[in-house]
Specification:
This protein starts with 10 loop residues before the first strand and ends in a 10-residue tail after the last helix. Strand 1 and strand 2 form a beta hairpin. It contains nine helices and two strands; from the N terminus they run E-E-H-H-H-H-H-H-H-H-H. It has 196 residues and is mainly α. Among the domains are: 86 residues, no CATH class; 46 residues, no CATH class. The radius of gyration is 23 Å and the shape is elongated. The longest helix has 19 residues.
Length: 196
């Protein structure tokens, strides 16, 4: 069994004596992606220490009281460098986008937009996993993907799964073997009493 890294998604940032804990939920990701026209403009603004971007990111993502940090930024901005927040918040924006810094990049399948990625995560959370919409919105991309992986492993353990060496049906249009097609067509046909 491979060693799994823990899902570390919450980030605590501090400014002076104030701190706030942020969570990269699907709701925060969807809201910020829409407001900033994508994660790239938000990431650039945060990396440059943009006051508006940092405040918006904190307000939308805070799971603890953010008033201390926001007040400090508002009234004492000259005494504190917003650039000290840039690095942890830039990493946080990447986690909103579903990027796991500890894992290698895998180029599997067709590329999709962030909107579609977060929509699929919501579908997985509410459909596959049976979470309520509110639970799905509060979950992080990493949590949804880890839960989906666990669900798939559970289903394989209960119902079995095809191994790499077992045959599968190629369902590409025009490439289904006639015998396989007959077996598939026989499913649900009450007139067929045995499989070909």
């Amino acid at each position: 069994m491979t060693k799994q890294r823990p899902i570390l998604s919450d980030v605590t940032v501090s400014l002076g004596r104030s701190f706030v804990t942020l969570r990269p939920t699907l709701r925060a990701a969807a809201t910020l992606h829409q407001r900033w026209g994508g994660f790239a403009p938000l990431l650039q603004a945060v990396s440059q220490g943009n006051h508006s971007a940092i405040c918006d990111l904190i307000r939308v993502s805070a799971i603890t009281d953010a008033s201390g940090v926001l007040d400090t930024m508002e009234y004492e901005a000259l005494h504190f460098s917003l650039h000290s927040l840039a690095e942890p918040l830039a990493r946080f924006v990447l986690s909103l986008a579903g990027v796991d810094e500890g894992q290698e990049s895998r180029n599997e399948g067709e590329p999709i937009t962030f909107d579609e990625f977060h929509h699929r995560l919501f579908e997985i959370a509410t459909g596959w996993l049976g979470w309520s919409p509110n639970q799905a919105w509060r979950a992080t991309p990493a949590e949804v993907l880890a839960a989906q992986k666990g669900r798939l492993e559970l289903l394989k353990a209960i119902f079995g799964g095809k191994g790499d060496s077992e045959d599968t049906i190629d369902a590409t249009p025009g490439k289904i073997d006639p015998v396989a097609r007959a077996k598939l067509n026989a499913i649900g046909d009450l007139a067929v009493t045995r499989m070909p």
